[in-house]
Amino acid sequence: MTEIPTGRPADSDLVAFLDGELSPAQAQWVEIWLTRDVELRQRLDLLGRGSAAPIQDAFAALLAAAPEAKLKQMLLALPGYRVERTVARTRRSWLWMRSRPRLALLAAGIALFIAGILVDRFLVDWGGITGIEIARDSEDEWRQAVAQYMSLYTSDTLSGIADEVPPKDRELAAVGAKLGVHLLPSSVSLPGIALKRAQVLQYDGKPLGQIAYLDPRDGVVALCIYTDSHQEIAPSPEQRAGLNIVHWASHGRAFMLVGRKAMPELRELASLLSQRLTL
C-alpha cells in the first residue's frame, strides 16, 4: 500500500506530480495542497515551464514589433519563394498568413542580432565597473533556471522544516548517490546557517542536487550541484534573477551557491565549500 505523506509537498514531489509518477492518492494529496498554497502553485508552474518562459516572452515582444511590410519584401526576394499574383484576394490572404511564421523568424533574428550587439557592449562595460560577471553563456542555462526557481523561495518555505541530523544524513546520501558525490553534513555545513533540506531535482534530463539552508538574517541559501560540466572553473561571482551567485566546476560537476546574501559573504562560503567538496 502506498504511503500518503502528510506534510507540504517538496520540489521532488512536484516534479513527480508533473511527470505522472505519483499514485492517485499521492496526486490528490498534492492537488489539495495546490488549492490552498499560492507559493506552491507558483513553484509548480515554474517547474512545468522550465526555463523557456523568458525566451517565449522575449520573442513575443519581438514579433509584436516586427516590420512586416519590409520583411515581406525581403521574403519575396528570397530565391525560390513565389506568391501567385493572379489568384483571388482570399487566396493571397491565406498565403500571406501562412508566410507570417517565416517573417516572424526573420524579425526575431534581425532584432536579436542588433539587441545582442548593444547588450554585449553594455555587459562588458558593466562587468568592468562592478567586477561581477553578468551571466550570458547559453551553456550555463541551468544556473538561470535555478536562479529563477530560487527567487520564489522565502524564509517561510523552509522555516517549518526541523533541523534533526539523521534525516539530513539520509537525504544527503540519496543526493550524493544520484550525483556520484560523497556528501556528509560535515562537508556541506555552513557557519551560522541551518541545513534544512537536500533533494534531487532534474534539469534537461540530468540530475540536479539542491542543498537548502536558512540564514536567520538573509533567508534562503542553496548549494546546487549539476552533473553536466566538462571543464574546471574557479569560483566566480555573477548575478541572475536578482540573486547573488558564486559558481565553479570540478571533476565533471558544476556547483553554484545562490542566495540574497551579500556577495563578499557568499564568496567566503563558496570558497569553504569548494575546498571541502573535492570529490
What count of domains describes the coordinates?
A: 3
Could you please say which CATH topology of the largest domain applies here? Phosphorylase Kinase, domain 1
Strand content: 15-25%
Main beta-sheet annotation: 7 strands, mixed
**Average of pLDDT:** 78
From the structure provided, what is the oligomeric state, counting identical versus distinct chains? single chain
Number of helices: 11
If strands are numbered along the chain, what order do they take across the biggest sheet? 1-5-6-7-4-3-2
Span from first to last CA? 38 Å
Give the number of DSSP strands: 7
Flag low-confidence runs: 51-55, 84-106
Rg measurement, Å: 24 Å
Name the overall outline.
globular
Q: What is the chain-wise order of helices and strands? A: HHHHHHEHHHHEEEEEEH
CATH class of the largest domain: Alpha Beta
Description of the molecule:
- The protein folds into 3 domains: 11-49, no CATH class; 52-130, no CATH class; 146-276, MucB/RseB, C-terminal domain (Phosphorylase Kinase, domain 1), CATH 3.30.200.100.
- α5 crosses α6 (89-130).
- It has helices at 11-18, 24-36, 38-49, 52-64, 68-76, 89-130, 141-150, 155-159, 165-179, 185-188, 263-276; strands spanning 133-134, 194-203, 206-215, 219-226, 233-240, 243-250, 253-259.
- The protein is α+β, with helices and mostly antiparallel strands and 279 residues long.
- The relative contact order is 0.09.
- Strands 1-5-6-7-4-3-2 form a 7-stranded mixed sheet.
- It starts with 10 loop residues before the first helix and ends with a helix.
Question: Gist?
Answer:
By secondary structure, this protein is α+β, with helices and mostly antiparallel strands.
